[in-house]
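Figure caption, in words: inputs first, then the predicted bound structure.
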Amino acid sequence: MKRAGDAYKSRMTDPISAPAAPVTAAPAAFDPHALPPLRDVIARFGLEARKSLGQNFLLDLNLTGRIARSANLPAGTTAIEVGPGPGGLTRALLATNAVKVIAIERDRRFIEALQDVIEASEGRLSIVEADALTVDPEELAPAPRAIVANLPYNVATPLLLGWLARIEAYVSLTLMFQKEVADRLVAKPGSKAYGRLSVITQWRSDARVLFNLPPRAFTPPPKVESTVVHLTPRSNPEPADWRALEQVTAAAFGQRRKMLRQSLKSLGNAETLLEETGIAPTARAEEIDVAGFAALARAFRARTPAEPPPERGA
Ligand code: SAM
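Bound structure (S-adenosylmethionine present):
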């Protein structure tokens, strides 16, 4: 993953925040319901949803409260949110233990609409106007930090991959995905949904599904069901090189119905890799667990020179 520092600095505008207030480990009580209803905010600022930016809003503060609480943020954590939109989840995060909330929003229309929340937050909320794909959250906040977001579905996977590459920098990631993607994140070997995304996610994190939400929970409703997933860094990830694991899983799952001795041929030395790792040449990608893929990645890396790390969002 490219550390996004330079690109991020050039594109980011100054964080907009309330006048500085002393930040304490025990944040002041914040009442999400004390501000105008989200529907009124949307009407007042003319915030019709833009499909191109994956805008499906959560306007029920009970629901956003449930998501924010499910992140289970330890005291003193900075919560980083991608895409605050009209601010339903942002308000809910301000009502948690989070010492600060930093929200990254690409659509300028929401910056003005969030001013009331910024003022009510007494210095705990900052907004960064930027494309989250170009932002390195580690540069926004010191540890402990966590990401909590109802993600724009069109960029959810590249965002997740960028964060997974450095997941040890986060207490946790609590993220809303479309259900089909969430199913792939937690899928186990032998299942239809098991693939590259499952291997890379489970190699780096312990991922579990928290709950599903139907389309009607959102305004406007998306076409698909949604799922909140909680990811925490794996304490002892199998040693492997990110790029090598990507290459091995791409080859294996690119022809998932073929035996590995065939599908891994593009790596140049399929039979040797399988022999070295003790994996049956007749096995198929979907039968191999994370430890097996990590072993294949190590064997592959030992025989091929290392390449530069992947671009953020690649
Ligand atoms: N958090 C709000 C809620 O739950 O109602 C809005 C969630 S909506 C699914 C996704 C939000 O992400 C929108 O506000 C959208 O403008 C914003 N967004 C889309 N692409 C983005 C990007 N690349 N970087 C930052 N924000 C983005």
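Residues 51 and 226 are 16 Å apart (CA to CA).
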